[in-house]
Amino acid sequence: MTAISLEALDAAPWDPLESALPQHPVEGVPLALRRPALGGGAPTEEHCYPLSFCLAAGNGRVPSAATAALPFLVALAADPGTLADGVVPLLERWRAETDPAMRLPVLLQLG
Question: What pLDDT does 13 receive?
């Protein structure tokens, strides 16, 4: 990862956080974030499914693990080794944008 190391990922306090779905416990979040970081090349759907199960409930609720995972997701998006098409301009826009009403949609697109 570029901006955030794997050591920081391991050091994050995941235990008190909640995942999106009970059948996908929060302990799986660091592993799910580590897989695309170490996978080399662009993450596959196989890499991303565990992340979506742990972080996105699909009911509009944002679990605490998703909030804690956001800096790591942004670091993955910024990493040239895993960079998806169109992410670089979005990341640059998010960093430069000062209007909160515009930052949120850009951040959601990054996610």
Answer: 93
